[in-house]
Design a protein that fits this description.
globular; 17 strands; VOC_core; single chain; 9 helices; alpha+beta; eight-stranded mixed sheet; five-stranded mixed sheet
Length: 380
C-alpha cells in the first residue's frame, strides 16, 4: 500500500438500465449493438433465468473492457425511471477494482463522501465479493469492487450468457480494443473545480493535466478541463466545463440534454488504431469527420517537430484520425458520433506513443467537427 488506499483500473462498469450506458432499448438489443458495431463478446448474464427478479444485466467484454447493460424487469422501478426521464441513455456507474475496501470506505466517510450503499457482500459458488458505492458528480456513482480470491465468471449472481456466442462475430474483423484509457465527465459552468476537488478530497486523487479556455476554443465555443488521477496514475478522469463563447459549446449542449453533469465519453485504448478504425468502420460504426485543412496544417507543423509519426499520414487522413504530439511522443485519436438519440454520450478510440496527454492540440478540430453536427441539430 503506497497510500491510504489503492485503486486499480482492472474492472470498470457502466450501467445501462433503460437509461444507463449508451442505449435505452432492451438489453439484448443494446448488447447486440456493442457486439456487432464495436466488437465486444457476450460475457455474462443475470436475469430471470438466474434468479434476478427485478433487474436484468447483460455483460459484454472486449479484452479488459467490460460494459454491464442493465434494465428493470418490472413496471414502476422509480430509481431507473427517474434516471431515464432526466438523462436518457447514459453512464450511471463507473466501478473500480480495489484491494482494501475497508480502508477506502473508512477514508471516504471521514472526508465526508456521500455513501450511496455501505459495504455489502455477495456470494456464489465462485466465492465472495465485497462492494460499496459512493456518489460523485451529478447522478453518477462509483462502485468499489473487492474481488479477493473470487474465481467465478464475473461477479456473484452472474451466469454464462443465454447466447454465449454471437454468430455475427465470426464474419466481422476484430478491432482489438484493449482497455479503458480514460472516462470524461462534463459539468455545468463553474462546477469543474468542485468536481475535481471531490476526487482529490474523497479518493485522494491528484491533478494530472489541465487546460483552460484560452487554450481550447473555436470561433464559437470553448472549454476548460482538469484531469485527475489515482496514486499510480492508472485511472484518468478528465473533468470538463463549458466556457463562455459566442454560441453554445458542445459541453453546454451535453449538460442541457443530459440534464446536468454526467459522463460525456469513454476512451478505449488500442495498440493499432488504423486497423481498429478500419475494422470498426467495416462494422458500420460512425465517426466524426474533420476537414482536410486540418491535415494540411498538421503536416506543416510536423516538419518542425522532433517527433516523427510512423503511421502513414495519408491513411490517417483517409480515416479521419487526429494526431497530437509534444517533444516526447504523440497520440492518435478519433471520436464516434453520439451512440444514442440525445446528443450526449459517445466513444473515443485512442493509441498512445509515449504521450500521456489528452489531445489538447486536437480540441479545436474536434470542436469544429462537433459544431458541424450541432448546427445540423439546430443547437449551435
Amino acid at each position: 500500500m503506497r497510500t491510504d488506499y489503492q485503486l486499480r483500473q482492472t474492472v470498470w462498469k457502466d450501467w445501462l438500465w433503460g437509461g444507463e450506458n449508451l442505449r435505452a432499448s432492451p438489453d439484448p438489443m443494446a448488447a447486440s449493438y456493442y457486439i456487432s458495431r464495436m466488437g465486444f463478446q457476450p460475457h455474462a448474464y443475470s436475469g430471470l433465468e438466474t434468479g434476478s427478479r427485478n433487474v436484468v444485466r447483460h455483460v459484454v467484454r472486449q479484452n479488459r473492457i467490460i460494459f454491464v447493460l442493465v434494465s428493470p424487469l418490472n413496471p414502476g422501478n422509480e430509481e431507473m425511471g427517474r434516471h431515464l426521464i432526466t438523462h436518457g441513455d447514459g453512464v450511471k456507474d463507473i466501478a473500480f477494482s480495489v484491494e482494501d475496501l475497508d480502508a477506502i470506505v473508512k477514508k471516504a466517510k471521514e472526508r465526508g463522501a456521500k455513501i450511496v450503499k455501505d459495504i455489502w457482500e455477495e456470494n456464489d459458488e465462485g466465492g465472495k465479493v465485497r462492494f460499496a458505492q459512493v456518489q460523485t458528480y451529478g447522478d453518477t456513482t462509483h462502485t468499489f469492487v473487492e474481488r479477493g480470491t473470487y474465481n467465478g465468471l464475473f461477479l456473484p449472481g452472474y451466469k454464462r450468457p443465454l447466447v454465449p456466442v454471437d454468430n455475427i462475430t465470426k464474419t466481422l474483423p476484430d478491432p482489438k480494443l484493449d482497455f479503458v484509457d480514460h472516462i470524461v465527465g462534463n459539468q455545468p459552468d463553474l462546477e469543474m473545480e468542485d468536481a475535481a476537488a471531490w476526487y482529490e478530497k474523497h479518493l485522494i486523487f491528484h491533478r494530472f493535466w489541465s487546460v483552460d479556455d484560452t487554450q481550447i476554443h473555436t470561433e464559437y465555443s470553448a472549454l476548460r478541463s482538469i484531469v485527475v488521477t489515482n496514486w499510480e496514475e492508472t485511472i484518468k478522469m478528465p473533468i470538463n466545463e463549458p466556457a463562455p463563447g459566442r454560441r453554445k459549446s458542445q459541453i453546454q449542449e451535453f449538460v442541457d440534454y443530459y440534464g446536468g453533469a454526467g459522463v460525456q465519453h469513454i476512451a478505449l485504448n488500442t495498440k493499432d488504431i488504423i486497423s481498429a478504425i478500419r475494422h470498426l468502420r467495416s462494422r458500420g460504426m460512425e465517426f466524426l469527420s474533420v476537414p482536410n485543412s486540418y491535415y494540411d496544417q498538421l503536416k506543416e507543423k510536423l516538419k518542425l517537430s522532433k517527433v516523427k509519426v510512423v503511421e502513414d499520414m495519408n491513411v490517417l487522413q483517409e480515416l479521419n484520425i487526429l494526431v497530437d504530439y509534444d517533444d516526447n511522443g504523440y497520440l492518435l485519436q478519433i471520436f464516434t458520433k453520439n451512440v444514442q438519440d440525445r446528443p450526449t454520450v459517445f466513444l473515443e478510440v485512442i493509441q498512445r506513443n509515449n504521450h500521456s496527454g489528452f489531445g489538447a492540440g486536437n480540441f479545436k478540430a474536434l470542436f469544429e467537427a462537433i459544431e458541424i453536427d450541432q448546427a445540423a441539430r439546430g443547437n449551435l
